[in-house]
Amino acid sequence: MSRNTELLSRIESHDAVVGIIGLGYVGLPLGVAFAEAGLRTLGFDVQGEVVAGINEGRSHILDISSERLAALTDSGAFEATLDFGRLAEADAIVICVPTPLSKTDDPDMSYILAASESVRGNLRPGQLVVLESTTYPGTTREMVQPMLEGTGLAAGIDFFLAFSPERVDPGNTRWNIQNTPKIVGGLTPACHELAVALYGEALESIVEVSSPEVAELAKILENTFRAVNIGLV
Description:
single chain, globular, 8-stranded mixed beta sheet, 8 helices, 41% helix, alpha/beta
C-alpha cells in the first residue's frame, strides 16, 4: 500500500492523529473541530499557561467554551503540549501560527519558519503537512517545501504538503470554523486528495483549488476586499 493510500485510509477510518501548531483563535477552534469529528488531536504551543489551561479544560478563545473544551480534554480526544518532539505522533500537521506585519509592513515570517523547523525535526514518511497562516503566494512551495525536503524526504512521495488559508471571524455567531467554506490547494494530486479528505472529516464545505499558490492568493484577495470595505465604511 502506498503512503498516500495508507494515510487516506487512516483519515477516513478516524485512526489518524492530527497535530495543530499554534493554539490561538485559529488553531484551537480547528483542533476542537477535528477532535469532535473523532480524530484524536494534539495541540502544540510555546506558551505554558495556554497549554496548562487547555489541559485543565479552560478555554482562552471566545469561540470555544470551556465546557465544550473540557469534554474533549477529559475524554482524551484533545491534548495540548509544549513538547514539539511529539509532532512525530501526528499523521497530519496543521500550522496555524501568526504572520504579523513588521515595522516596514512586511510579513514577519519568523513564526512560519520556526514552526516549519519544528516539523522538519520530527518529519517522518507518510505525514501530511498543511500551512494555514496568511502569507504571500509561493510560501508553501518556495519556503516550506525546501525546508521539509532538507530531511531527504520528497514532497508528494514521502510526505504530503498543502495550503489551506484560515478564514476565522472571531465572535461571529453565524459563521464558524465548521460552516465557513474551506479553500484547499495541494502541492501534488496526492497532497491535494489527502488535505481535502482531512478537512472534509470535520468541516462542512471544501472549496478545491488547483495549487497552493491559488489558495494563498485567495486569502490575500479576501483580506484586501475586507480592508477596502472597512475603509469605505
